[in-house]
Amino acid sequence: MPVTAEGLFLTHFLPLYPADARDDLARARTVDANPGQNPAILAHLEEAARIFAARAPALLELSDDELRLDFSDASVHRLSAALTPSRRDRWLERGEPGTADNELFNLVVHGAAYVGVCILHDSRRRARWAVRRPLWESVIELASPAGEAHLAIFQWWLKSLSDDALAPSSETASPTVYAGTLADRYRTHVEVPTSRVDLLPPIAPKDRRLPRIAKVRYDVLYKHLKAHLPELRDLGSDFPRAERFADMGLKWLDFLLLGEGGADNPARMLLMYGPGEGGLHLIWLDLGGFHKASFIPADAFPEPIVKLEGDQLVAIVSWEGKPVAHHMLWWGP
Question: How far is it, in rounded angstroms, from Cα 306 to Cα 254?
Answer without folding.
Answer: 9
